[in-house]
Amino acid sequence: MEFAIISTLNGVTYGLLLFMVSAGLTLIFGMMGVLNFAHASFYMLGAYVAYAVSSIFGFWAGLIVAPIVVGLTGMVVERYLLRRVHAHGHAHELLLTFGLAMIIEEMIKLFFGDFPVNYQMPDYLRFSAFSVYGTDYPFFRLFIGATAVVMFALLWGLLTRTRTGIVVRAAERLPSMAEALGHNIPIVFMCVFGAGAALAGLAGAVAGAFYPTNPNMGLELGVIVFVVVVVGGLGSLKGSLLASLIIGLFSSFAVGLDWSVASILDLVGLGGWAHSIGGLLTLELSSVSATIPFALMLIVLLVRPAGLMGERN
Amino acid sequence: MNKFAALAAVSTLAFCANAAQADPLKIGIIESLSGAQTSSGRLYATAVQYSVDKINAAGGFNGEDIQVVEYDNAGGATGAADKFKQAVADGVDIVIQGASSAIGGQITEDVRKHNLRNPGNEMIFINVGGEAMELTGDKCQFYHFRYTTTAPMRVNALVSAMKEAGDLGTKVFSINQNYSWGQDMQSAIESAAQDGGFEVVDAVLHDVNKIQDFAPFVARIKSSGATTVMTGNWSNDLLLLMKATGDAGLDVTFGTAYLDQPGNIANAGETALGHYIANNYDNTAGDASFAEDYKAVTGQNPIFVEPQTIFAIGALGQALEGLDFGGGAVDVTKIALALEDVTYESPVGPITVRKEDHQTIRPVVVSKVVKDAKYPADDTSMGFQSVGVVSGEDAIYPVQDSCQMKRPN
């Protein structure tokens, strides 16, 4: 019971963190069809901007400035780079964002050095919210989770319940029709890209204070964020949330479980044989816990190529 | 075959005669200078340059300055193999590398094959950071020298110093990364259990630098009832693990190998206090001139992998002092033989090479993170204070059976 409760708690908050980082990516892909490889770099940029600002003006100022700066960067990228290559198709957009990711990473190293910087949450946020079975539960994890939930609610409301949402969705479905109705489609795209980047910036500012802020943080989270978006269904916000939670829970439970192929074979009396062979048969689930999301992605792609909640094919 | 050998000999002679004027010794650093491991790679390269400058200031070698060439392996073994070929083409005599055992494994094999194919034109590989046991085991060879510790040396030192300080406890949790180094650490921890008087209550291997959330592992440490956690984790895997443990309010003592990586102490904050590390260098040992000179030249304190690198080049410089090629061709085999006999007096104690497997016998320093340290780390008030220096003789382990070294005739 203790194991189940603690693992669920850990899994859900980790899942919400993943959602927080992948929300912007989903938004940009869903509304613009651009697979943004630089997304995790925007996340890193957010953390570093928040670090730079917070060391002078305090933590909350960093939290506000980071998404604005990163959002503006995103808009500039869309206006002056992406828009130029848009006509040449997806491959060019992909390559452009890929190159951008590398440039951002090296720029960060140039300005902030190769080592993790000391970006910390303020001391008054460093307390345990509650205690389960003698294990403290840090408040900041709940803060990360809450940020993700608010992010989801806002995005969801904005896209489905407001006039702006209708325009954005129309721009994605039928751009020329929306344009004919008098909407400035290029501006809409620029704002969507900026908003997606800003979300990544906010995620970086929040998560960077909890996890180490270093030049590799984009690289480390970047891959897993793509897995989330693919599993959830490219462009589906609800799907991303679902996929994040599933991946969070799977990773969390896998660590505590000593399952291996050998232990399953034990049930039918072949355990001794499996242990004598070793290798893959005795590989414990916990030692491949970081691989589980990728296995999940493989299965989802095989069974439902569009992702759990994806519509497009 | 004989004809070939004769031909090779003649051409080598001819080559030697041609190059009779001035033949500088060339050192090639094949290091991770871009990509994820830049932070370590750059430190190794800076330390090599610093120490070679010292030798050159004292007159260089063979009538010339020693030349240093940097090659960027981009953090991978494939890149390293590529750059090794380039280093061969550039006429490099000594290759130096430290960040990553996987790359070290690639280079030592490349050097071995090169030396087989080019007798009389050998190269040396000075390994300043790759700690995988196989480098002095299965892959051991005459032209590879390891100027750093290995897993059993670090673990044995940790166990003896922590036991003496009363911080070891009887229940130890082993958590390591799932590749050669982590597996070496795990088996070293398990084999130290009997002498250390503790029980390994649980051992786990996990993916390398992929895990963002260590809270589930902390839950597992807690349910095992361990009071001490021993880990060879480095970079994010160590930082995230320690932070998650601190956040959960779990009261365990860490025995680590890489807590001294720049940025770690600042990021871990108060959580780092009271934890242990076994490494190659004690920044409070003896007089402070070593650290202060390094800081004056390069702008940073030598607290991570720099000291072991500087000691390695220092030992090389000592070996070179006894050699004189009269300005002629550099005989790398003679340098290797001389290096075997060097006893280098580092600020923490003597470092010698064990001839059977070319592992260095060296003191291992165990330090603890304390407040108000003499040399604070990362602009905090915390830093490392040495709690014990385990002498080379006590820290060393027997030569691995798998090492079959072929010596030059």
UniProtKB/TrEMBL annotation, chain A:
<comment type="similarity">
    <text>Belongs to the binding-protein-dependent transport system permease family. LivHM subfamily.</text>
</comment>
<keyword id="KW-1133">Transmembrane helix</keyword>
<keyword id="KW-0813">Transport</keyword>
<feature type="transmembrane region" description="Helical">
    <location>
        <begin position="12"/>
        <end position="37"/>
    </location>
</feature>
<protein>
    <submittedName>
        <fullName>Branched-chain amino acid ABC transporter permease</fullName>
    </submittedName>
</protein>
<keyword id="KW-0472">Membrane</keyword>
<dbReference type="Pfam" id="PF02653">
    <property type="entry name" value="BPD_transp_2"/>
</dbReference>
<keyword id="KW-0029">Amino-acid transport</keyword>
<feature type="transmembrane region" description="Helical">
    <location>
        <begin position="57"/>
        <end position="82"/>
    </location>
</feature>
<dbReference type="GO" id="GO:0005886">
    <property type="term" value="C:plasma membrane"/>
</dbReference>
<dbReference type="GO" id="GO:0022857">
    <property type="term" value="F:transmembrane transporter activity"/>
</dbReference>
<feature type="transmembrane region" description="Helical">
    <location>
        <begin position="241"/>
        <end position="265"/>
    </location>
</feature>
<feature type="transmembrane region" description="Helical">
    <location>
        <begin position="217"/>
        <end position="234"/>
    </location>
</feature>
<keyword id="KW-1003">Cell membrane</keyword>
<feature type="transmembrane region" description="Helical">
    <location>
        <begin position="187"/>
        <end position="211"/>
    </location>
</feature>
<feature type="transmembrane region" description="Helical">
    <location>
        <begin position="94"/>
        <end position="112"/>
    </location>
</feature>
<dbReference type="InterPro" id="IPR001851">
    <property type="entry name" value="ABC_transp_permease"/>
</dbReference>
<keyword id="KW-0812">Transmembrane</keyword>
<dbReference type="GO" id="GO:0006865">
    <property type="term" value="P:amino acid transport"/>
</dbReference>
<feature type="transmembrane region" description="Helical">
    <location>
        <begin position="285"/>
        <end position="303"/>
    </location>
</feature>
<feature type="transmembrane region" description="Helical">
    <location>
        <begin position="139"/>
        <end position="159"/>
    </location>
</feature>
<dbReference type="InterPro" id="IPR052157">
    <property type="entry name" value="BCAA_transport_permease"/>
</dbReference>
UniProtKB/TrEMBL annotation, chain B:
<keyword id="KW-0029">Amino-acid transport</keyword>
<dbReference type="GO" id="GO:0006865">
    <property type="term" value="P:amino acid transport"/>
</dbReference>
<keyword id="KW-0813">Transport</keyword>
<dbReference type="InterPro" id="IPR028081">
    <property type="entry name" value="Leu-bd"/>
</dbReference>
<dbReference type="InterPro" id="IPR028082">
    <property type="entry name" value="Peripla_BP_I"/>
</dbReference>
<dbReference type="Pfam" id="PF13458">
    <property type="entry name" value="Peripla_BP_6"/>
</dbReference>
<protein>
    <submittedName>
        <fullName>Branched-chain amino acid ABC transporter substrate-binding protein</fullName>
    </submittedName>
</protein>
<feature type="signal peptide">
    <location>
        <begin position="1"/>
        <end position="22"/>
    </location>
</feature>
<keyword id="KW-0732">Signal</keyword>
<comment type="similarity">
    <text>Belongs to the leucine-binding protein family.</text>
</comment>
<feature type="domain" description="Leucine-binding protein">
    <location>
        <begin position="24"/>
        <end position="372"/>
    </location>
</feature>
<dbReference type="InterPro" id="IPR051010">
    <property type="entry name" value="BCAA_transport"/>
</dbReference>
